[in-house]
Design a protein that fits this description.
Rossmann fold; 43% helix; eight-stranded mixed β-sheet; alpha/beta
Length: 404
């Protein structure tokens, strides 16, 4: 098991703090692994094994404890007064009325609680009611490029080195299971399709009681096909009508909401730089991992710019940035990323192959009159380092940079 140190360090900062720690993310992104890493760290730090209560509710071993009263009774039976306990509850959304049990644990026992869940709406809605102000969310994403390289070194050290390591990451994405064994692309995409099907069924269709699964699949394919482009429910509804598939904007947005909750899609709002306000229309959507796009849509060369944007977007989210699409008059900046007092502007392109492309990518950043870092990120191996303070970076170097 390879340590995903960034997530472990985030969790360790909150050990023994009076907050419930919620680890969230798409299925198979590595949440359970992070929880096991935490358990190992607790034991190494001197916590007795009997003080760690670990349950994975996707395992049939815990099928008898998937209601709040049953879960409460089991945990109560393991606790002895005068001792501190650590509850590690994996895929907690499988427990009916789980939030009531967790709330009772906080009230009745001396416990430090760590949960994982695969649906953000499930966690946010119930927690807001029962546990407001008493939890912290730690999102887990699929592998970053740096983590991908670590997996390659650990699991494939005897293989011939890749001529272009980034190409492997670009083609196969970041689901950890894909990189623990050598899979060809067809096999890797089959595994991702199975993950995708599980997410659609369990975290979208069943959770939101969606009846028209065929329409849901169409919405997903439309969103994947337009990655990197601005998006509106009306555009989607109009497109389906042109295909003799009648629907309405309200249904489209309900489906998008469900897909966001399952981390299949991430919504990115637009920000008016001059007006300093978040706009309510023409947002963008990105996939929870680029392999989801390939597994459902196949490889399409015309999508490369959107795929690269998707990779950069996920890296910004891993690093804790709030991300927006920038609007400056009639020009667009792919990403404005903010974290505390830090702000970064980023344009993403496939290749800077002509002066027209250079002008298109650099000019919006040059028009922003502030001191924050500005980057154009592409797959060009050789190019100027910067133009008037706007820096160019190869995407692999950008993803591996310690700071932006």
């Amino acid at each position: 098991m390879i340590s995903r140190a960034d997530y472990l360090e985030q969790l360790k900062r909150f050990i023994n703090k009076p907050l419930i720690k919620i680890i969230t993310g798409i299925r198979r992104s590595g949440k359970s692994t992070v929880l096991r890493m935490l358990q190992e760290d607790l034991l190494k730090s001197g916590v007795n094994e009997t003080q760690v209560i670990s349950m994975n509710f996707e395992s049939f071993a815990w099928a008898d404890y998937t209601t709040a009263p049953k879960l409460y009774d089991y945990v109560k039976s393991k606790i002895r007064q005068g001792q501190k306990y650590y509850l590690l509850l994996d895929e907690i959304q499988e427990v009916e009325d789980w939030e009531k049990a967790v709330n009772s644990f906080m009230v009745d026992f001396d416990v430090d609680i760590f949960l994982t869940g695969s649906n953000s709406h499930l966690l946010s809605s119930e927690l807001a009611t029962f546990l407001a102000g008493r939890y912290v969310e730690i999102p887990v994403f699929t592998l970053s490029y740096r983590e991908y390289l670590n997996f390659r070194e650990h699991y494939h050290s005897g293989e011939k080195p890749q001529a272009d390591p980034f190409a492997g990451y670009l083609r196969k994405g970041g689901f950890p299971v894909i990189h623990t064994v050598h899979y060809d692309e067809d096999t890797a995409y089959k595994i991702v399709r199975d993950i995708y099907s599980s997410v659609i069924l369990r975290d979208t269709v069943q959770r939101h009681k969606i009846r028209d699964v065929e329409l849901l699949e169409r919405v997903i394919r439309y969103a994947f096909d337009t990655i990197g482009n601005t998006f509106s429910g009306k555009n989607v509804a109009d497109y389906f009508k042109s295909q003799q598939r009648k629907t309405d904007i309200h249904t489209i947005y309900n489906y998008l909401y469900a897909l966001e909750g399952a981390y299949i899609l991430h919504r990115v709002p637009r920000y008016d730089i001059k007006g300093r306000e978040i706009l309510k229309t023409q947002e963008k959507f990105y996939a929870g991992d680029v392999s989801l796009v390939y597994a459902t849509m196949g490889q399409r060369d015309r999508m490369i710019s959107g795929i690269l944007e998707n990779i950069v977007f996920l890296e910004l989210k891993r690093r804790g940035y709030q991300v927006y699409v920038g609007k400056l008059d009639n020009r667009e900046i792919d990403f404005i990323a903010e974290k505390q007092e830090v702000k970064v502007y980023i344009q993403v392109a496939y290749k800077l192959e002509s002066q027209q492309t250079v002008e298109r990518e650099f000019s919006p950043l040059l028009a922003v009159n502030d001191h924050y870092p500005k980057y154009v990120v592409s797959m060009d191996d050789f190019w100027k380092d910067s133009i008037e303070g706007v820096r160019h970076r190869h995407i692999a170097d950008f993803l591996l940079a310690e700071y932006f």
